[in-house]
Design brief:
mainly alpha, Glutamyl-tRNA Synthetase, domain 3, Arc Repressor Mutant, subunit A, 3 domains, 3-stranded antiparallel β-sheet, disordered N terminus, binds glutamic acid
Length: about 525
C-alpha cells in the first residue's frame, strides 16, 4: 500500500519539501545538527525546500532563548532554512503554538470516525489505575486496550454521561483508540520495511486538556498542511510511527504521508551520546555554547572549542553516511552533489573526538589564510597594538596553520609573534652550552643589529657562514636560536620566524636569552 502510494506521489512530481522540527527545549546537540544537515542536503540535491518548524506545544518544557539560539547555530553552520519563523514563507505560522486552532478540528474528526475518544481521568485517577490494575503479567499498565474500559472515558461511559461531562466543562484529553490487533507498517528510506503490532501499543494523548495538541497530532497535521514530502528524524521517533500512520490513514490518506527516514543514533563511548559524555571525556556536544537559563550552567560547543563550520558539517555528514568511496573530506557543495539516502547506514554511528579534530585539522590546513584571518584576529584581539599589517598576519597564518588542530591553538602556535615568550626553556639550551656558542650568538646579535637582508634564505646563509667561522655545526645552533625566539622547541622554520619578527626583535630576544644563560 505504501509502495503504491510512493509511485502515485512520484508520478505527481511533487516538489521536495523537508522539515527540521525541533522543540525549543535546550541546546542544539550534534545529533540535531546532523538531522538538519541531512534534511538540508536532501532538499538542495533535489532542488527542494528546507523548512524549520518550531514544535513548542509542550509548554512545560519550553525554554526561553532556545529558539533564537537554534537559528544562531544554523547560521553559524551555514544551513539557512528556506522557510521558518525567521525566514518567512507561505505555509506559516511556523511555530506550532500559533497554529493551535488548526489542530482541534482534526481531533474532532478522529472522534467522529471512531479513531479517538474523550478521556476524563484526573491525574490522581490515572495514578490509582497504575497501582490498582498492575498484575504480574502487566506490572506497569499503560492506558491501552487492556485497561481502557475500566477507566473514565467516552468508550466506557454511556453517550449521555459523556455528553453531560462535556457540557459541565469537565477537563478531558483526547486519546487515540489503538486498534486491538492490527499490523501497521511503512517502508523506511533507511531501514526498509518496518512493522508494528498495535496490540502492544498504548492509547497516546492527541489533544491535551489545555487544548494544545501533543506532538503526534501536530506533526501529522503540519506535515500535511506544509506539504512535507520527506521527513528525516532521529531513530528515537520510530516507535511513534504507528500512531502517525493511523492518523495519516484516517485524516489525509496514507498515500500522502511523507516518506520517512529514521536516522541512526550517534553513539558515544558509553552508548547514546549524551551531554554527560561530553563533560566526562572533555568534548563538545552542542553546535555552539549553550547556557541553561535556569541553572546558568554553560555546556561547551563546537564553535567555541575552535571548530570551523566546514569541518563540523563534514564530520557530521560522515557520522552514518559515506559516498561509497574512501573519500572523507567534502565541501558542502560536494556533500550536496554526492548525498544519497541509500548510503545512510542503519546502525548507530560512533562519534570519536580524535577523528573530529582530525577533520578540523584537515580543514584548517586546506583553508586559505583569508578564511582564517577573522578567527586569528579574534584570538589576538588584545594584541592588535603590535601593528602587523594584514599581509604580515596572513603570512603568520600560513606559517602556523599546519600546526593547529583547533582554531584556539592559534594562540599558542602564534603567540610569540606578538609578545616576547613568557618563559624560555634555558635548561634545554644550557645542557650543551659553551663559550664558543655564546660568542657566536653575540655575533648574531650584531648581525641583526646591522643591515639585515629581509630574505629568509639570505639570513640562513649568513648564519651558516658565521657558524663555520666559529667551527660550530649549524645544527647545534638552530635549536638554541629557536628556543631564544619562541621559548620552546616548537614553531615553524627558524628563519621564517626571524623574518616575521624583524631584525630588532630578533636581536633583542637573543640578547635577553643570553642574560639567562651561564
Ligand atoms: N519535535 C520533534 C523533536 O523535537 C520532531 C520529531 C520529528 O521530526 O518528527 O525532535
Amino acid at each position: 500500500m505504501v509502495a503504491a502510494g510512493w509511485f502515485i506521489f512520484a508520478a505527481m512530481g511533487k516538489k521536495v519539501r523537508v522539515r527540521f522540527a525541533p522543540s525549543p527545549t535546550g541546546g542544539l546537540h550534534l545529533g540535531g545538527v546532523r538531522t538538519v544537515l541531512f534534511n538540508y542536503l536532501f532538499a538542495k540535491k533535489n532542488k527542494g525546500t528546507f523548512i524549520v518548524r518550531i514544535e513548542d506545544t509542550d509548554q512545560r518544557r519550553f525554554v526561553p532563548g532556545a529558539e533564537a539560539y537554534l537559528f544562531d547555530c544554523l547560521r553559524w553552520c551555514g544551513l539557512e532554512p528556506d522557510e521558518s519563523v525567521q525566514h518567512g514563507g507561505s505555509f506559516g505560522p511556523y511555530r506550532q503554538s500559533e497554529r493551535k486552532t488548526l489542530y482541534r478540528q482534526y481531533a474532532d474528526q478522529l472522534i467522529e470516525k471512531g479513531l479517538a475518544y474523550y478521556a476524563f481521568d484526573t491525574p490522581e485517577e490515572l495514578e490509582k489505575m497504575r497501582t490498582l490494575l498492575a498484575t504480574p503479567s502487566n506490572p506497569s499498565p499503560q492506558y491501552d486496550r487492556q485497561v481502557r474500559m475500566q477507566l473514565r472515558n467516552s468508550l466506557s461511559l454511556s453517550a449521555d454521561e459523556t455528553d453531560r461531562l462535556l457540557k459541565a466543562g469537565t477537563p478531558y484529553v483526547i486519546r487515540i483508540k489503538m486498534p486491538e490487533q492490527e499490523t501497521l507498517g511503512f517502508t523506511d528510506l533507511i531501514r526498509g520495511e518496518v512493522r508494528f503490532d498495535t496490540a502492544t501499543l498504548d492509547d497516546k494523548v492527541l489533544l491535551k486538556a489545555d487544548g494544545m495538541p501533543t506532538y503526534h497530532l501536530a506533526v501529522v497535521v503540519d506535515d500535511h498542511h506544509m506539504q512535507i514530502t520527506h521527513a528525516f528524524r532521529g531513530e528515537e521517533w520510530l516507535p511513534s510511527a504507528p500512531v502517525h500512520i493511523l492518523l495519516w490513514q484516517s485524516l489525509f490518506g496514507i498515500e500522502n504521508m511523507p516518506r520517512w527516514a529514521h536516522l541512526p543514533l550517534i553513539l558515544g563511548p558509553e552508548g547514546k551520546l549524551s551531554k554527560r559524555d561530553g563533560a566526562k571525556y572533555g568534548f563538545p556536544v552542542f553546535a555552539m555554547n549553550w547556557t541553561d537559563p535556569a541553572s546558568g550552567e554553560t555546556t561547551e560547543g563546537f564553535k567555541e572549542k575552535g571548530f570551523l563550520p566546514e569541518a563540523f558539517l563534514n564530520l557530521l555528514a560522515l557520522l552514518g553516511w559515506n559516498d561509497g568511496s574512501e573519500k572523507e573530506i567534502f565541501t558542502l557543495t560536494e556533500l550536496i552533489d554526492s548525498f544519497s539516502i541509500e548510503r545512510i547506514h542503519s546502525a548507530g554511528a560512533h562519534f570519536d573526538y580524535e577523528k573530529a579534530k582530525w577533520f578540523n585539522h584537515e580543514w584548517i590546513k586546506r583553508s586559505p589564510a583569508n578564511r582564517l584571518l577573522p578567527y586569528f584576529q579574534e584570538q589576538f584581539a588584545t594584541l592588535s597594538d603590535v601593528g602587523y599589517s594584514e599581509e604580515k598576519l596572513t603570512r603568520i597564518i600560513e606559517l602556523v596553520k599546519e600546526r593547529c588542530q583547533l582554531l584556539t591553538d592559534l594562540k599558542e602556535q602564534a603567540g610569540f609573534f606578538f609578545v616576547d615568550p613568557l618563559s624560555i626553556d634555558t635548561a634545554a639550551i644550557a645542557a650543551k652550552w659553551s663559550t664558543e656558542k655564546r660568542s657566536f650568538f653575540e655575533g648574531l646579535i650584531a648581525y641583526y643589529q646591522g643591515e639585515t637582508p629581509e630574505e629568509a634564505a639570505q639570513q640562513e646563509q649568513a648564519f651558516k657562514e658565521k657558524a663555520a667561522a666559529f667551527q660550530l655545526k649549524p645544527g647545534e645552533l638552530l635549536l638554541p636560536l629557536r628556543i631564544m625566539l619562541v621559548g620552546g622547541k616548537f614553531g615553524p622554520g627558524v628563519f621564517d620566524i626571524t623574518t616575521v619578527l624583524g631584525p630588532a626583535t630578533t636581536a633583542r630576544r637573543i640578547a635577553h636569552a643570553l642574560t639567562l644563560l651561564p
